[in-house]
Design goal:
The chain has about 140 residues and is of the alpha+beta class. The protein has a single domain (about 1-130), classed as Aldehyde Oxidoreductase, domain 3, CATH 3.90.1170.40. Helices cover about 30% and strands about 40% of the residues. It is elongated.
Length: about 140
Amino acid sequence: MIGLSKQPIDPEAVRKAVESKEFGGVCVFVGEVRSVTSNRETTHLVYEAYEPMALTKMQEIADEASVKWPGKFALVHRIGEMFPGDIAVVTAAACPHRNESFEACRYLIERIKSDVPIWKKEFGPNGEFWVEGEIQK
């Protein structure tokens, strides 16, 4: 499952997309909109994407993960207006063992943040801010 959605994302549907009796380790990452970024209050945000390129890049990331780990992978990112607590992104990795699934799931979200043409604009009492994707260490 690779997708961009204007509707809320169901993490369980993403998990089920990678489910297999072959794999004992399933890891799901759920990224939610937070109310504070860099000491700035966020009332809402808007994700925009260059959809054809974003979907192509997301598929490339899943394909790259398939070379690194045996398994099934899913990536879904929401676009449009969201509010604190809304789910913005879900990645899932199912692999034979838990360690592989943890590594793969982290790889998926970090690559989305760094390489997929999705942009976030946050809104709050102090104005509007475009936010750059960043890799967590």
